[in-house]
Amino acid sequence: MLGPGLPFPAVTLRDETGRTVEPSEGETLYAYFKTTCATSEMAWPYLEKIRRLAKGGGLRVQPVSQDDPTETAAFHSRTGFSGPALYDPPPWSAS
Protein backbone atom coordinates (compact mmCIF):
# COMPACT_ATOMS: atom_id res chain seq x y z
CA MET A 1 0.00 0.00 0.00
CA LEU A 2 1.26 3.47 -0.84
CA GLY A 3 1.63 6.05 1.86
CA PRO A 4 0.70 9.73 1.48
CA GLY A 5 2.93 11.64 -0.91
CA LEU A 6 4.47 8.57 -2.55
CA PRO A 7 4.32 8.46 -6.36
CA PHE A 8 2.00 6.05 -8.13
CA PRO A 9 4.05 3.07 -9.35
CA ALA A 10 4.66 2.75 -13.07
CA VAL A 11 1.83 0.78 -14.67
CA THR A 12 0.48 0.58 -18.19
CA LEU A 13 -3.04 1.93 -18.56
CA ARG A 14 -4.69 2.52 -21.92
CA ASP A 15 -7.38 4.80 -23.31
CA GLU A 16 -10.39 3.45 -25.23
CA THR A 17 -8.37 3.34 -28.48
CA GLY A 18 -5.63 1.22 -26.87
CA ARG A 19 -3.01 3.98 -26.61
CA THR A 20 -0.81 4.00 -23.52
CA VAL A 21 -1.69 6.77 -21.04
CA GLU A 22 0.66 8.19 -18.43
CA PRO A 23 -0.56 8.35 -14.80
CA SER A 24 -2.14 11.69 -13.85
CA GLU A 25 -0.28 14.35 -11.95
CA GLY A 26 -1.62 15.27 -8.54
CA GLU A 27 -4.01 13.45 -6.26
CA THR A 28 -5.92 10.75 -8.14
CA LEU A 29 -8.28 8.08 -6.87
CA TYR A 30 -7.88 5.13 -9.25
CA ALA A 31 -11.03 3.00 -9.07
CA TYR A 32 -10.53 -0.40 -10.71
CA PHE A 33 -13.66 -2.29 -11.70
CA LYS A 34 -15.21 -5.16 -13.64
CA THR A 35 -18.52 -4.43 -15.34
CA THR A 36 -19.88 -7.76 -14.05
CA CYS A 37 -18.99 -7.03 -10.41
CA ALA A 38 -22.01 -6.34 -8.21
CA THR A 39 -19.88 -4.42 -5.70
CA SER A 40 -18.55 -2.14 -8.43
CA GLU A 41 -22.07 -1.50 -9.67
CA MET A 42 -23.24 -0.61 -6.17
CA ALA A 43 -20.26 1.71 -5.53
CA TRP A 44 -20.26 3.57 -8.86
CA PRO A 45 -23.05 6.07 -8.12
CA TYR A 46 -21.11 7.11 -5.00
CA LEU A 47 -17.90 7.48 -7.00
CA GLU A 48 -19.79 9.73 -9.41
CA LYS A 49 -20.85 11.92 -6.47
CA ILE A 50 -17.23 12.09 -5.28
CA ARG A 51 -16.07 12.92 -8.84
CA ARG A 52 -18.59 15.77 -9.12
CA LEU A 53 -17.72 17.18 -5.69
CA ALA A 54 -14.00 16.99 -6.42
CA LYS A 55 -14.22 18.51 -9.90
CA GLY A 56 -12.05 21.60 -10.12
CA GLY A 57 -10.38 20.75 -6.81
CA GLY A 58 -7.31 18.78 -5.90
CA LEU A 59 -8.70 15.26 -6.36
CA ARG A 60 -9.37 13.45 -9.61
CA VAL A 61 -11.49 10.26 -9.72
CA GLN A 62 -10.19 7.96 -12.46
CA PRO A 63 -12.08 4.74 -13.22
CA VAL A 64 -9.99 1.89 -14.63
CA SER A 65 -11.97 -0.79 -16.44
CA GLN A 66 -10.93 -4.40 -16.83
CA ASP A 67 -13.42 -4.78 -19.70
CA ASP A 68 -13.68 -3.44 -23.24
CA PRO A 69 -14.95 0.08 -24.08
CA THR A 70 -18.40 -1.12 -25.21
CA GLU A 71 -19.06 -3.00 -21.95
CA THR A 72 -17.61 -0.09 -19.98
CA ALA A 73 -19.89 2.46 -21.70
CA ALA A 74 -22.93 0.29 -20.91
CA PHE A 75 -21.79 0.00 -17.28
CA HIS A 76 -21.34 3.77 -16.98
CA SER A 77 -24.76 4.36 -18.52
CA ARG A 78 -26.34 1.86 -16.12
CA THR A 79 -24.63 3.34 -13.05
CA GLY A 80 -24.78 7.04 -13.98
CA PHE A 81 -21.03 7.66 -14.14
CA SER A 82 -20.16 10.42 -16.59
CA GLY A 83 -16.36 10.56 -16.50
CA PRO A 84 -14.00 8.90 -18.99
CA ALA A 85 -12.41 5.55 -18.17
CA LEU A 86 -8.94 4.14 -18.64
CA TYR A 87 -8.38 0.46 -19.31
CA ASP A 88 -6.26 -2.29 -17.76
CA PRO A 89 -6.36 -4.98 -20.46
CA PRO A 90 -5.65 -8.66 -19.79
CA PRO A 91 -3.59 -9.93 -18.05
CA TRP A 92 -4.60 -6.95 -15.82
CA SER A 93 -1.04 -6.09 -14.85
CA ALA A 94 -1.95 -2.72 -13.30
CA SER A 95 -4.57 -4.17 -10.98
The largest sheet is:
3 strands, parallel
Biggest sheet, strands in spatial order? 3-4-5
Indicate the radius of gyration in whole angstroms: 13 Å
Q: Percent helix among the residues?
A: 25-40%
Low-confidence sequence ranges? none
Number of helical stretches of at least 4 residues: 2
Shape: globular
Q: What would you call the structural class? A: alpha/beta
Task: Spell out the blueprint of helices and strands.
Blueprint: E1 13-14, E2 20-21, E3 27-33, H1 38-54, E4 59-65, H2 69-79, E5 86-87
Parallel strand pairs: 3-4, 4-5
Antiparallel strand pairs: 1-2
Helix pairs in contact: 1-2
Provide structural commentary.
This protein is α/β, with parallel strands linked by helices and 95 residues long. Helix content is 29%, strand content 21%. The protein has 2 helices and 5 strands. The strands form 2 sheets. It has a 3-stranded parallel β-sheet with strand order 3-4-5, covered by helices on one side. The protein has a two-stranded antiparallel ribbon with strand order 1-2. Helix 1 (38-54) links the parallel strand 3 (27-33) and strand 4. Helix 1 (38-54) packs across helix 2 (69-79). The radius of gyration is 13 Å and the shape is globular.
